[in-house]
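Before a computer can learn anything about folding, someone has to put a protein's shape into writing. The three-dimensional part falls to structure tokens, numbers that each stand for a local backbone shape. The protein below has been through that process, and both of its lines are reproduced in full.
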Amino acid sequence: MTAIIFGVLLSIGCVLLFVFDTGIGIYLFILGFCLSMLIVFNGIYHLPNAKIEINGNEMLISGYNTAFDLRLVKQIEIQQNRILVKNINDSVVRIDNLNLDKDWADRVSNYIISYAPQLSIATATDSNVAVLISNI
């Protein structure tokens, strides 16, 4: 989020300097504006993003096309930067680019457990902000 704010402020500054003719020139304006847009797009690309939605026995995670049947989930591992979903066939789905701390990992695990009582918390470690949820 900081990169987005910095990029927007840099672009506004470049436009204001150009509009009020402070002598920066067209080339420096174009360079500053392009650089600010690159910073904004980089900030947007690296935003943490995920949405978990549970409908009945299906869990939908943004960024993944199909829903997971919670009755077939063997283990869900919630870490600081990703969520790993393993089903009974041992296939693994990774959801990356997350930014979870211990509090958010607990919230996600409690949300999943509230809709899927057949899952339980197996371990919770503080060192890597991981919470493992596996079948009972």
Summary: The chain has two domains: 2-45, 52-135. Residues 52-135 form one domain. The radius of gyration is 22 Å. The chain has a mean pLDDT of 80.
